[in-house]
Amino acid sequence: MNLSLRQYQTELVDRIRDSFRHGHRAPLLQLPTGGGKTIIFCDIVERTVRANHSAYILVHRAELLRQASDHLNELGILHGCIAADRCITGDRVQVASVQTLVRRLDRVPAPDLVIVDEAHHSNAGSWRKIFDRWAKSRFLGVTATPIRLDGAGLGNQSGGYYDELIQGPQMKWLILNGFLSKPILYAPPIGADLEGIRTTAGDFDIKESSARLDKPKITGCAVDHYSRLCGNAPAIAFCTSIAHAEHVAKQFNGAGIPAIDIHGKLDDNTRKYRIHALGNGEIKILASCDLISEGTDIPIVTAAILLRPTQSLGLHMQQCGRVLRPFPGKSHAIILDHVGNWERHGMPDQNREWDLNASRAPRRKPDEDIEIKLRSCQRCYAVMRATAEVCPQCGAVREAKKRTIRQVSGNLEQVSEADAVTVQTRARQEQGMAKSLQDLLALASRRGYNPQWAFNVYNARKAKQFQEAVL
């Protein structure tokens, strides 16, 4: 059957085919989470089968195997599954668990095309055995984050296997065009001291991170801010360890918010049930340890609660990406960053220029500030550009810093107090002149604010008027 692809997805398919035609053996497709990587590689699989060639899709988790298989079934593409509990079939299309495939390489013929899902893992030992064994096959890697934990790229000049990067639209473009939900990032204080945590294998040490963060007071802070900012929306909490995930779920349940933990030591059916329970509303919080960061597609999920500090841009982007898929009635996504990942990695939707052979994190696009400085609102904890004078979420006006006499080149210069009046005063005056909700919505649009800001200001005025009338 013919797939219905968006225009940018069709263009990416054409670029992938051109890459192979021009002699590349292993191009790598980068596309933000929710941009449609699966539908793109399914289209390529279908074309491969029509040409009487074989194609294998490699995954590293049971959830991803099931997800890819479900997509192929929906599209009517016959296939087999290579997994611990499955028998090898003669289908030209296979979805294969990497761990099982490595053990069966002697029994599996090399396919014409190998698609590597979540390709940022493909420098690991198991993947290398497959690349080396199937040296004559073509490979296509797909990932939202073409970067290793240490910030290095995945290209053959960096010790990887890929020989061309095909970068899709930026996350910001996908949001503006309605393909992803806009994230609103909050950075509530949590009271955990993260200074001095050692680095192990390129990231914060798990045991030390868990010892700092797995405390009732800190989890209670996360529960309180979820209750205040998320409106009981379905959420995933990203935790540092299995015990941490269990304790987070327990504390949410204690606050009357249905929650359950999930991690890799649970059997496949239990994990499947718990993911389904979040998707159908049976629970509100899924507390995850190293399981839901990649690939899991639950569009209804609206909020991400970050309780695991990470030095990995890739992991941070994968976690934030879990809540960006659009869903009916979902106006935006919420990210509660309790561990300062935003300070290390910036906003999730800022433009990034990925480099296949980078030796460190990707640079920002040239049309953006070289350094995008951010700050957190002292009233609602929303994160915004440091230069913003008014919070786009709650309308709080930034307090002017006190002006002092300073000495420059031996001369005293008095900084005029009039300078302190300008932006803040004009912002207050302009807001005061917006009398109706429609006026406030128009003002929010001119300033580039979230429309919710207008409703917050309007409702606050109504509440104040009511209080004054009662008194």
Describe the protein's architecture and organization:
By secondary structure, the protein is of the alpha/beta class. The protein folds into three domains: 7-169, Rossmann fold (3-Layer(aba) Sandwich), CATH 3.40.50.300; 180-385, 3-Layer(aba) Sandwich (Rossmann fold), CATH 3.40.50.300; 406-470, no CATH class. It has helices at 7-21, 37-50, 62-74, 98-103, 125-133, 171-176, 206-213, 216-229, 242-254, 268-279, 313-321, 341-345, 422-433, 437-447, 451-470; strands spanning 27-30, 55-59, 80-82, 93-97, 113-117, 138-143, 164-167, 183-186, 199-200, 203-204, 235-238, 259-263, 285-289, 303-306, 333-337, 352-353, 363-364, 374-376, 383-385, 406-408, 411-413. Strands 3-4-2-5-6-1-7 form a seven-stranded parallel beta sheet. Strands 8-15-14-11-13-12 form a six-stranded parallel beta sheet, with helices on both faces. Strand 18 and strand 19 form a beta hairpin. Helix 1 crosses helix 2 (37-50) and helix 14 (437-447) packs antiparallel against helix 15. It is globular.
Quick overview of this protein structure:
With 471 residues, the chain is of the alpha/beta class. It is 35% helix and 17% strand.
Question: Which features does this protein show?
Answer:
471 residues, alpha/beta, Rossmann fold, 3 domains, 35% helix
Rg (CA only): 25 Å
What percentage of the residues does DSSP assign to strands (E)?
15-25%
Taken together, the total number of domains comes to 3
* Arithmetic mean pLDDT: 84
Range of helix content? 25-40%
